[in-house]
Amino acid sequence: MAHSKQHPIGDTNNHSASTLAQLNALISDANVKSELRTVNTYTANQTLTTNNDIVICKTNEFTVSLYTAVGNSGKELEIINHYSNVNNITISGTINGVTSRELAPKNSITIFSDGTEWLIK
């Protein structure tokens, strides 16, 4: 039975240093996107910012206002109406050319910015 010997990271005897350098280069590459997303829960009117990623709307009917899509290319928002009653959440802001949308209870929408407008994903 063959056994492979494990070398610690940075061990130059097995070229780990060059592999580590390549990995560090990938991590620092601007094209690598973090999978960590911010989750915020709101219960009243809210104007979103670029710090929002996942927005959970609870309790009564209220309005969530979008920030501008201009200059925010690649930014994604997921808005969830967690309320189980009949109250809709109003999304104020243009999405796919429509200036305002109603989000029914227990529904969600994911949108992204192409740098000029919000589009449904």
Give the number of helices: 1
- Rg from C-alpha positions? 22 Å
CATH architecture classification name of the domain at 39-120? Sandwich
Overall shape: elongated
Strand arrangement, major sheet: 1-3-5-8-9
| CATH class designation of the domain at 39-120 | Mainly Beta
Name the average pLDDT: 83
Q: CATH topology of the domain at 39-120, anyone?
A: Jelly Rolls
> Would you report the number of β strands?
9
Which class do the helix and strand fractions yield? Answer: mainly beta
Helix content: 10-25%
Question: What labels would you give this structure?
Answer:
Jelly Rolls, 4-stranded mixed sheet, mainly beta, single chain, 9 strands, 121 residues
Task: Describe what this molecule looks like in 3D.
Strands 1-3-5-8-9 form a five-stranded mixed β-sheet, with no helix packed on it. 14% of the residues are buried. By secondary structure, the chain is mostly beta strands. It has one helix and nine strands.
Helix/strand layout:
Blueprint: H1 16-28, E1 39-42, E2 46-47, E3 54-57, E4 62-65, E5 76-81, E6 89-95, E7 98-103, E8 107-113, E9 118-120
Parallel strand pairs: 1-3, 2-4, 3-5, 4-6
Antiparallel strand pairs: 5-8, 6-7, 8-9
